[in-house]
Amino acid sequence: MITQPIITSPQLLTSLGDDYRALQRVSNSDLTRLKEEHLGYWSVPSARFIPEKAKVFGRAFHQHLLEPETIGTVMQQLLPDMTPDNGVLAPKQTEQLATLMQTIRQDAFCRRYLRLSERERVVLFTDPVSQVACKSRLDMVYTSPKRRNALIIDVKTTSARTQSQFLESCYTYDYDRQAAFYIDSLRHADSADWATTRQFRFVFIGVMKQRPHRLFAVDATSIPNFIDYGRKKYRFWLRKWREEQQTFEPSVQAWSMSA
């Protein structure tokens, strides 16, 4: 059964997003920003090669797919430069989004898990190595009836034109780190929802933004060392984040005492 919030107004939509961002925990996106700060924005592929409009369209696409009841308000919020004054999405963007939705919903695998999965599931957890409090928000997560198996599905829009190009992008944009972070969010969740789960799988679905709008699938958990390497990445940046917090707090305390 799909459990997702019923969103009836732009104010409530904003509130839900703000509630997640307000959680004083570290997300995978926070680690991306930390990496950009340390290595320099233009030296990080995920920032250098994805134009802002592409990121915005990707967010709109996810909202269109995972929370279709919010389409009208989301289009105006996320794509203001693509919506005329009357609030109606420009025909080109409307057609492109509709085509992408149709492509996904015609696929038997995607259709099945769109129906069975929880969408936009927020998971709170603590990394057992760094002891940093973390959070994740999963596109789709399906847990088997006896909770022995869990499947996470993350949908990406992509400019890749072949399966090999999409797989390459999984390395270029740190999707291995994302997959490891999300899997471990279930393993170490503060709730006991996945305490008895034995197997965790993670599948990336890529949908071509250009014609012929093919779908690509990458089972991240079937690639040797993919998740292990991603785990090393996110834990490296969690250590950096913790070190910065520990350095920052004494500085604030010293400033407060001298003020």
From TrEMBL:
<dbReference type="InterPro" id="IPR011604">
    <property type="entry name" value="PDDEXK-like_dom_sf"/>
</dbReference>
<dbReference type="InterPro" id="IPR024432">
    <property type="entry name" value="Put_RecE_PDDEXK-like_dom"/>
</dbReference>
<feature type="domain" description="Putative exodeoxyribonuclease 8 PDDEXK-like">
    <location>
        <begin position="50"/>
        <end position="235"/>
    </location>
</feature>
<protein>
    <submittedName>
        <fullName>PD-(D/E)XK nuclease-like domain-containing protein</fullName>
    </submittedName>
</protein>
<dbReference type="Pfam" id="PF12684">
    <property type="entry name" value="DUF3799"/>
</dbReference>
